[in-house]
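Subject: sequence -> structure tokens, single chain

Hey, anyone have a minute? Need the predicted structure for the following. Not urgent.
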Amino acid sequence: MAMGRAIGWLLYQLSRRRRSIAQTNIALCFSHLTVSEQQYMLRQTFADNGIGIIETAMAWWSSRDTLSHRVSVEGGKLIEKAQAQGRGVLLVGAHYTSLDLGGILLAPSYPYYATYQRHGNALMDSIIRRGRLNHLPGMVEREDIRQVMKLLKQGKIVWLAPDQDVGPDRSVFAPFFGIDAATTPIVSRLAAATGAKVLQFSHHRTHQDQRYLLTVSDSLASIPSGDLVADATKLNAAIEAKVRLKPSQYLWLHRRFKTRPENSPAIY
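Reply:
Had a minute. Here:
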């Protein structure tokens, strides 16, 4: 944890662009905070991202047994119930800083297939895949929707994180922290096409960063409703509620509001 915070401090000092993006996001989403409180959250965000780098290395190359006594899982019965009914499970995550470690700590109890975006660097892509496949039964490229549908129809568990901006052509607008955010409707479409159960998955460091809480919840039970905008609104609200629990553990370094509604000014 100390090493991760040190890495985060270094990133804060050196990465002016990412610091500016995170500062803008925090100012928009937590406008009720004072400037000094926002600055504190900004520094904590970089500290948590630094910790996340260490956790990713642990996830890819350490034994899960190292951390098993520090992990609590809530809501796992929801996955078991859906699979007992013969349904696939669409496990909706988000880009928390403990993304890789949180997911891999869930895998022993509930093996799942993870969607991912291929890295532009072939060597880095190979490292990422190898690290994750040490613990997961398989991975699917985000664009390979047919394979995702096939797995869900087979009753498998598939993880995806729909909380990043994928551009205007594949999105609808729905509020996230009160700001219109381009949101992919892929969760609604996959659930409608496969009959999969949609469950929310979150993971946070707790107890002064000494433990991990993994939570599976039924907060997205109304998806699919037949209304893509209503579903996206529900989805963003559910993610927002989890982010508010530990705000600095979310990936504010991403340009979440890059795509703007027509005639709206650019944010970044």
